[in-house]
Amino acid sequence: MDNSSVSYLESRKLVKRWNGPIPALVNTFLILAFFYATWWIFQDPRGLMRMYTPYVGYMVCRWLLILFIWLAYIFDFWPFKRSWLNKTHPLIKGAVLTLVSVAAMIILMKGFFVEILGNFGIAYFNPDRLMAMGITEFYAIEYAAEAIMMFAAIASWLSPSWVVACENAPWQKLGQPARGITIVLVTFFLSMIVYFVTMHSHMAILFYPWQKFTAICPPYWEEFANTVSGNFHIAWIMCCTVVVWLYETIWERYPFNLIKHDGLRRVTSFFGIIAIAVALCFFLFYAQDLVWGSTIRGTRRLMAPDWRWLHVGEMAIFWLVPTLFLNFYCNNWPNKFSRPVNVCIRTLLTAALAVVVYVIYYKTSHLFLGTQKGFSHPQQFPMIPMIWLINIFLINVWFMDGWPGWKAVQKTEAELENHQNEVVASDVKWTQGIAKGLGIGLVAGALLYFAIIKALPWVGANITIIK
Amino acid sequence: MSTNRNNISRRDFVKGAATGLVAGTFASMGMYSYSPWAYSRLPKTQRNQQDFGTCRSVRVTNISETSWFNNAHLIGDIHEAGGLLVNQYTLNWAPLANGKGSGKGSYEEGISTIKDLLPHDLEKAWEIQKKLSLHPENPGGYSCLLEVEALDGTVRKFLLDTGWSYEWMDSCFKREGIDQMLRDQEIEALFISHEHWDHFWGLPVTMKYDNRIPLYVHDGFYKEGLQYIKDSGYKGEPVIVNKPVTQIAPGMALLKFDVPIINRVFGETSLAFNIKDKGLVLVSGCNHQGILQFADFAFTNLKYDNDKFYGIYGGLHISPFEDWDPKYDDLVIALGQWGFELIGCNHCTGHLTAKKFVEAGYPVVRGTARFRSASEDYLGNGDKITFG
Question: What domain of life (chain A) (predicted)?
């Protein structure tokens, strides 16, 4: 096996340029500086381009995420040659690959969604059409951007899932660009189906009277979710987006990579991610009820079910930031224990760090991001800065090989073999000890859950995050 | 050999336990969190009903509900400035514009152009600001007069909000006789529902006639807002409302809600009245907290006759720019369950919402669409409603 037979990301090993925590500290500092500078230029309501409201900035950062995933994960950097990737300075690579992604994003958003779909298929994708029918420019842009952005939210779960869970099957042996085009088309098609089932009715209710002849109104989820808003779907879809990355990074595809049968492993991984995401979604919704009290249908913001569902997605994205940071910049710490113990520690650690990020965000974001103070302002979208930050992580690690703290070196043949063996992990075998531990662990997990839900009402009554 | 076997077994046990811990936690999340058992754990609402007395009736006169005359201009200016989170004092609207364009205003520069004229020469001040501001013909304002009849028949008057345009509000005050009431100090207090331009920036108009009127503002007011109170010529000390419930008169209470609002405004205060033998009436400026949150807070914290929601009045803040979102339909669907007998709405409620209320069969009190109010579905400018 040689380096050209695996993807670029799999073929390289990132090596620290300096000892200890210095690379992580240097990269963190530079990333935060770049984040703040670009936030000010593009997003900040006090800054230069002010794309934060309406949804334009949100749409851009979601689609950038997808384009990065497509370029690195699905197209394996095609049409860029492996030799160019290996030899070019990370700063140049980062700039070129980012600009190519931005260009592709603009073509997709403006060309496909606004001009083609918006003019020849579904009017609400084109703000000009909405304005021509009498909707204020601001809301015409907002509605169109919301629809285009929601499509990206679905794709940002399905696209990486096809690589991570389905292992590119059944096209894993195809060369590029045939494999990339195939997987993009398939995931795009699936995203469209999920979009129609989850968001099209939401968009149809936006307009008066309800567009009953083109969408299911009232939607099927109304009774279950206690709202007609599509935010209910944003909740579980965002959880899927987060869980697919948990599974890929800090969980190292454990435990589904214990399944030896290819088909069974892929199907189990794909639906397992959804099952875990739905569990997380229900918990995060319930956690809010425990802290703030039961929702009241029809009310606004903090007490409204539609806002709570949206906030589920927002809370989930707070978990993704420390997860990717641990994986990218802390070498997926810890590594010294067995895989299940490492996974367990990382899960608990990143969940705790997510709470810290959440608290810091709501305490300070109105001061330095130009957002509004409070949890539930209709224009307070923590997903935007979190995804903006994640995008910068991806540019740094995928496109720039972790520069300046890290540099890419080619993996040895032995390392490549080892990586290949990880697709089916063999370090956990069914024994009596495992079975006994698993049983007790399951009980402990249930107790941990009940301890958390017992503590949450106390947290709500005694801890004030925003004064 | 046996030690080795024990070690392996212990390692296996830990592997299993670590896997089980994570799996068990997620499994519990999925199986329990959204189940009926989980929700049976939530405590029932404990009502701590504060007795704030009773009044016989409250009559509301709508001085102006037309806060702005053109939605496209208003939201277009906000869009151009950078969106819904841009600080309102930088929008470059009269009377605090500095002439530098959208999103480039500053309170200090804006007020410096007219400070010496407040509140005695509002005509000149507004003329100066018209030249500096964006869409100077668009401002209107929200304000209403509340006449509260006590059980002994005496009537006490209060003002909720003071509008926006000096020119427009002064003409509205004169139309409804508010100018004379203020001069005669018949109006006991002015409540500012929140810091937004259309409810608050017309303050010098009230100051022109009574600059010592007791003034109540939410404790979320920014330093610019507090400074504007001084710069408007107010000679009293504003009451900073920092309690959830403040009784104003028998049967009348001021309620405080801490909510983030667009254009960097924080917090809203609204009013509640207990009408003898009828029930609770809720009155709001903009209702940014949401009408059902308002009602739920009152349900939990106030004692009122018949334990019945009787009426609502005010801007209900649902589709102020004729925008829509499915979550607003949740409100339209849910409102009927609360049993209000009289719904008097206008201003930021939105025409589309009023239309949907009417279609849902709710008891919406219609108006006359006079004095530039746009819809008969509303209680428009100059219209009155009596609860009780």
Answer: Bacteria
Q: Taking the model in full, what pTM does it have?
A: 0.92
What's the 3-state SS for chain A? CCHHHCCHHHHEEEEECCCCCHHHHHHHHHHHHHHHHHHHHHHCCCCCCCCCCCCHHHHHHHHHHHHHHHHHHHCCCCCCCHHHHHHCCHHHHHHHHHHHHHHHHHHHHHHHHHHHHHHHCCHHHCHHHHHHCCCCHHHHHHHHHHHHHHHHHHHHHHHHHHHHCCCCCCCCCCCCCHHHHHHHHHHHHHHHHHHHHHCHHHHHHCCCCCCCCCCCCCCCCHHHHCCCCCHHHHHHHHHHHHHHHHHHCCCCCCCHHHCCCHHHHHHHHHHHHHHHHHHHHHHHHHHHHHHHCCCCCCCCHHHCHHHHHHHHHHHHHHHHHHHHHHHHHCCCCCCCCCHHHHHHHHHHHHHHHHHHHHHHHHHHHHHHCCCCCCCCCCCCCCHHHHHHHHHHHHHHHHHCCCCCCEEEEECCHHHHHHHHHCCCCCCCCCCHHHHHHHHHHHHHHHHHHHHHHHHHHHHHHHCCCCC
| Extents of the domains making up chain B | 53-64+147-188+244-387
pLDDT above 50 (res B248): yes
Given an 8 Å threshold on Cβ–Cβ distance, is A373 in contact with B260? yes
- Please write the tens of the pLDDT for every residue from A170-212: 999 999 999 999 999 999 999 999 999 999 999 999 999 999 9
Q: How confident is the model at residue B1 (pLDDT cuts 50, 70, 90)?
A: very low
* Segment B289-318 mean pLDDT: 94
Tell if the CB–CB gap between A207 and B21 is shorter than 8 Å. no
Structure ipTM: 0.95
Please tell me if residue A432 touches chain B, with a CB cutoff of 8 Å: yes
